[in-house]
Structure formats: structure tokens, C-alpha cells
Design goal:
Number of helices: 15
Helix content: 25-40%
Structural class: alpha+beta
Bound molecules: adenosine-5'-diphosphate, zinc ion, magnesium ion
Strand content: 15-25%
Low-confidence stretches: none
Length: 504
């Protein structure tokens, strides 16, 4: 480092630890449900195991292991024959046993990777490990006062006391740890979006659940000269750099913001010749800033040791039988090839697995272009406008297919289909035929008769000429033609009138 502190070119280095809630019916070590009612009472979804009562023994949830194996396959990780559980010891009121059951030196997924695109370029981030663990309970810090409890929840620094709820304790989590491969907070957001997309495709994750993804973001600053041409940085430099860990960020955008703040804060310290303290920081979502929480804990603080109540887990032989669905990148590519869709349409139609499935169901019945327009443009557009999701209409696939059919068979105009029928379907929950009937949108019988009259005139110039030269009998011939065209459904008197009008 020859340059002075002030003139050094600096670069950010970022690594993530992402905690994701796995979608299982029951908790990871007991039979308690993972799904709480909207307004559930605290401490009602608990049992001796997840309350950590003496003598209670954990039993590993098969569903959580299956979900972890799926994640491992999706990120191309090694899934070792045998994997083990450890106790991570620390005292905190949300942790009823005073230790968390987690994985340590033999995690279920090792050495994976995830590709994503950022600003038009493909990026690959290495995933060091992804392991199973249990979620702790949740705390509510409360201030004394006359108001309802809900209005007295405050930050820990202002609280008079703290309430603890163990309903969440024992929810299965996967902690996904990346290598410090990110160089820019914006990349982190793109990565998290991709990760979420993959997890949702796998059916192991629900992004709409509160707190289902929580991110710890590590950032350090190095000399730009230490970053090689291909973006890599030596181990020694990485270990040397003092880094901060911003804990418990709850959104992709929050992660980007917290890291951007940290990058600026650390660079400013270095430029002023000051040292960056290795510490744990808290992200204040409203201020968009981070504050120091504590000096960083070290591994030895946790006294990791084997969880003796759980035997080693062997997944070999079993893991081969756990299938994973086609993942988003592959599906996008297939949509482009199989249905001849543009990049943009293929992206929209694979934005979630549910959208992609919905599209493919519609595309089995109609031309792919028509199906793509109706799902990608019309349906997704109208849903988006109403803040609705595809999952709000997946049950109504038949109704939607019927709507497209009405357009495809020319029974209603595309304009009416979109502006009236589709919108009313979403706003009022009616079926397309009911709406067509109520609004009188069908191309009516009258229209069909008028069309038949015009056709009959066009097709029979001789009869027309005869009629025009005064031969009334020719008109009867034309009436007969129209009656034949409408299958006899038209009223002869009306037809007669229409013909006279048309020929006048
Ligand atoms: P610890 O043992 O302190 O938890 P790890 O080596 O396990 O540290 O890494 C934890 C996280 O910190 C990982 O996500 C990793 O990518 C990230 N990390 C490691 N070194 C750096 C660094 N120099 N700058 C930023 N992040 C880093
Ligand atoms: Zn329980
Ligand atoms: Mg760590």
C-alpha cells in the first residue's frame, strides 16, 4: 500500500448470511404447527419440546430435511452422506433451551453456487454452506402506560419490560452463507431476488410470510488494487479486512440500503485515517442508517458441541428420490424455444412458478401468442393494478380459459373481453358468460342476421338485379337465402324488412 490513506482507491467486499423459513406443516423438532392464525395468542402453539422443558426430546422433521435437500440441489451444492447437529450455546430470553440446535462442521449443503443477472451481466456467487436450524421465539419490548398493549410496543432502548412469545420457536430455518463475492450493494438485491425466486419455485418458501427471510450482511473495505482482474480477492486480504455485520435485515431493499450506508461510512472512516471496528450493527429501517450493537461475537463464545439427542442424519440413498421442479432459468429458456416467446414475455411468464403453470395451462388450449398476450399482458396487468396475485385466480383457470375462448371464437370483441369481462371477473368474481349476458356483450342474433343479409346480397347479384328491375319474387328468393344462412332462426318478416332497407 504505497498511496496515502486519503488517495487510496477503495472497494467494498460483501458476504451474506440469509435465514429463510422453510415451508413445512410442523416445527423442525416437534409436532407443533408452523402456521399461526392471523391474531393468535402468544404461547399457544407450543409444547414441551419447543419450550425447552426438562426431559423433552427433539425429533427431526422429515419435511424440513426434504426441503433442505431441494435447496441443496437447486444451488448445486454437495450434500454429504452424513450430516450432524450441534448446540450453539448462548443465553437470550427468546431461546428457551439456552442453546439453538443448528449445524456446525457438517452442514447439509456445502459448496454451492447461484447465478443471477445484474445490469445485463451474468454473475455467479459461491455459497459456502447452507444448514438447518431452529428459529428462536420472538420478543416484544413494551413501555408502561394506559394505552392498549399494541400501542406500547417500542424499541428495546425505551422499554420498561419485554414479553416473549415462543410460537415461532422451532420453526425450521435454513441459513445460507455466501462467500464474500459481492462487490456492490446493488448486486446483493439482485441476488436476493433470484434466491427468493428459486426457493419459491422449489415450494419450500413463502415470501409473503412476515419475517420469512432475514439477512445478516457483512461488509469490509479493501484496496481496489487488491481486487484481481477477475474480481477475486486473496484469502489473506479478506481475513485482514475489518468487517461489520449488519444483523437481521428484513427486506431486499433494506439489505441494499444498509450496505450502501455501511460502504459510505467505512470508506469515510478510512479516508480520514481511522480504523473500522469489527462489530455487529443494527439497521434502522426508518433512518436508513446502521448503529453499533456490540463487538462481534466469536465462534468460541458459543461453545459448539454435538447435539447428543439427535443421531447423525444420513441422507444418501434418500436424497436421490427427492425431486425438484424445473427452475426459473431453465423454464424461461424452454418458454422461448417451445412457445417462441420474446425474452420479455418469457421473463414475465416465469416470474413465479404459479404464473408459469397458469400460462402453460392456458397455452395447451390456444395458440401460444394468444395465451401469452392474455396472461402476460392482460391478466397480470389487471392483477397488478388491483394489488392481486396470480394465486388469487389460480382456482379460476377454467373461467379465464373460457374468456380467452370467447375472444378466440369471435363471440365477443377483444376490447370488451379485456375492458369489461376481465375487469368485472376480478372486481365482482362473476364468470365470463354471466358478464357477457348481463352486459349484453355477445355479438347478438341481430348482428348475425344483418351479416347474413349482406352476404346474401353479395352472393346473389342476379337476384338483386331482378329485384331492382321490379321483380318482387326475387326478394323472396333472397329471404330464403338469409333464412338458410341463419339456420332458420331469423324472423322472415324482419329479414324481409332488412333486405328492402339494404337494397333501397
Ligand atoms: P464468522 O466466522 O465470523 O461468522 P465467516 O468466515 O463464517 O465469519 O463468514 C461469515 C460471513 O462473512 C460470510 O457471509 C462471508 O461471506 C462474510 N465475509 C467473510 N469475510 C468477509 C470480508 N472480508 N468482507 C465482507 N464479508 C466477509
Ligand atoms: Zn412444539
Ligand atoms: Mg458465521
Amino acid at each position: 500500500m504505497s498511496a496515502t490513506a486519503e488517495s487510496r482507491e477503495l472497494a467494498a467486499v460483501i458476504g451474506l448470511e440469509v435465514h429463510v423459513q422453510l415451508e413445512t406443516d410442523t416445527k423442525i423438532f416437534c409436532g407443533c404447527s408452523t402456521r399461526g392464525e392471523e391474531d393468535e395468542e402468544p404461547n399457544t402453539r407450543v409444547c414441551p419440546v419447543c419450550l425447552g422443558l426438562p426431559g423433552a426430546l427433539p425429533v427431526l422433521n422429515e419435511g424440513a430435511v426434504e426441503a433442505a435437500v431441494k435447496v441443496g440441489k437447486a444451488i448445486d451444492a454437495d450434500i454429504p452422506e452424513e450430516t450432524t447437529f450441534h448446540r450453539k450455546n448462548y443465553f437470550y430470553p427468546d431461546l428457551p433451551k439456552d442453546f439453538q440446535i443448528t449445524q456446525y462442521d457438517a452442514p447439509i449443503c456445502q459448496d454451492g453456487e447461484l447465478e443471477f443477472s445484474h445490469q445485463g451481466a451474468r454473475r455467479l456467487v459461491n455459497i459456502r454452506r447452507a444448514h438447518l436450524e431452529e428459529d428462536p421465539g420472538s420478543l416484544r419490548h413494551v413501555r408502561d402506560g394506559p394505552a392498549d398493549l399494541e400501542n406500547r410496543i417500542v424499541g428495546i432502548d425505551r422499554a420498561d419490560y419485554t414479553l416473549v412469545d415462543y410460537n415461532r420457536a422451532g420453526t425450521p430455518l435454513m441459513e445460507i452463507v455466501t462467500e464474500p463475492d459481492f462487490r456492490d450493494p446493488k448486486e446483493v438485491r439482485a441476488f436476493l431476488e433470484k434466491l427468493e425466486e428459486v426457493l419459491e419455485y422449489l415450494g419450500v418458501f413463502d415470501s409473503t410470510r412476515d419475517g420469512s427471510m432475514r439477512i445478516d450482511a457483512n461488509l469490509s473495505i479493501v484496496d481496489a488494487d487488491d481486487v484481481a482482474e477477475d474480481g477475486t480477492i486473496s484469502k489473506a486480504v479478506l481475513e485482514d479486512a475489518n468487517r461489520t455485520e449488519v444483523k437481521n435485515i428484513s427486506s431486499h431493499k433494506g439489505a441494499e440500503k444498509a450496505l450502501a450506508y455501511e460502504e459510505t461510512r467505512q470508506k469515510n472512516l478510512i479516508k480520514r485515517g481511522k480504523a473500522v471496528a469489527q462489530e455487529t450493527r443494527h439497521f434502522n429501517e426508518t433512518h436508513g442508517s446502521t448503529v453499533s450493537m456490540r463487538s462481534k461475537e466469536e465462534e468460541k463464545d458459543y461453545r459448539y458441541f454435538r447435539e447428543a439427542d439427535l443421531p447423525a442424519l444420513r441422507v444418501s440413498g434418500w436424497k436421490e428420490e427427492i425431486p425438484i421442479p424445473e427452475l426459473p432459468d431453465a423454464r424461461r429458456e424452454r418458454f422461448r424455444e417451445e412457445y417462441g416467446l420474446s425474452q420479455e414475455a418469457a421473463s414475465k411468464l416465469t416470474s413465479t412458478k404459479q404464473v408459469a403453470d397458469f400460462f402453460e395451462d392456458v397455452a395447451t388450449e390456444f395458440d401460444a401468442d394468444l395465451a401469452a398476450t392474455w396472461v402476460a399482458d392482460n391478466l397480470l396487468g389487471e392483477l397488478n393494478y388491483r394489488d392481486m396475485q396470480i394465486t388469487d385466480v389460480t382456482e379460476r383457470l377454467d373461467e379465464f380459459t373460457r374468456l380467452v375462448e370467447l375472444v378466440a371464437t369471435d363471440e365477443i370483441t377483444a376490447k370488451n373481453a379485456e375492458e369489461t369481462v376481465l375487469r368485472t371477473m376480478l372486481d365482482e368474481g362473476l364468470a365470463p358468460d354471466e358478464i357477457v349476458e348481463r352486459e349484453g356483450l355477445g355479438k347478438t342474433d341481430d348482428d348475425a342476421v344483418v351479416a347474413a343479409v349482406k352476404e346474401a346480397i353479395e352472393e346473389n347479384p342476379e337476384a338483386v338485379a331482378d329485384y331492382e328491375s321490379g321483380e318482387e319474387g326475387a326478394l323472396n328468393f333472397l329471404v330464403g337465402q338469409v333464412m338458410a344462412k341463419t339456420g332458420g332462426s331469423a324472423d322472415p318478416g324482419t329479414v324481409n324488412g332488412l333486405l328492402r332497407e339494404e337494397l333501397a
